[in-house]
What we know:
The structure is a single chain. With 253 residues, the protein is mainly α. It has one domain (2-102, 114-250). The protein is built from nine helices and two strands. A hairpin with a 4-residue loop joins strand 1 and strand 2. Helix 3 runs antiparallel to helix 9. The two termini are 33 Å apart. The model has no long low-confidence stretch (mean pLDDT 82).
Amino acid sequence: xxWDFTTWFVIFVRFSAYLLLFPLTSAQxxxxxxxxGFAALGSFLILPLVPAVPLDGAALHxxxxxxxxxxxxxxxxxxxxxxxFYAVEMAGSLIATESxxxxxxxxxxxxxxxxxxxxxxLHWMTLILMLTxxxxxxxxxxxxxxxxxxxxxxxxxxxxxxxxxxxxxGGMFVIxxxxxxxxxxxxxxxxxxxxxxxxxxxxxxxFSESFPVRTIAGLAVFGLTxxxxxxxxxxxxxxxxxxxxxxxxxxxx
Length: 253
């Protein structure tokens, strides 16, 4: 029983750190006690599938080292599942900036912050698509499979892992630019047209006249490309399981 409790607690440390950034449980509206309850229940469910972790006679610094590695492993794996949502929120901010909608911010209960209207729409779209694809179950199963690749206390924080995580973080900007490409192109065309009109008619107030056109054109293109945005999000959601296991393998290098 002592070994079972020790193993459960080690799993609980990684699980709770993972749920800290997990898209469904990282919402500020979810109480911490609920998040800890999910971690405790999940740790109990996968306990029979994880080898026992003996800590009898281990020095205090070895115990702290194991817990530090477990927290680091959970946070890194949670970030891999969370990166796409950061990219989507960034894309929403770009769309709002180019469409002139930054002044109308809405409260997002998931992140407990005020974000632009396109950002809220894309965030909920990504969340619904993730639930539709059943990826939330896979990511929980993936955490259990991570113990087959990275045993408790066996993680190694290498330079290769740091480079890969930084590269994936930089990839968020690429994803955001790909999603907002049509909006950026439309905004550029509107700017170019009104720049030419400003040269032809110097009396025209280009800024005030272009603002409603930019907003209408941006909203029109955003509405017409929502299907393409959803397909783009689905493609990146389907890559998360492979990225998840690939990063777990890097934790052992």
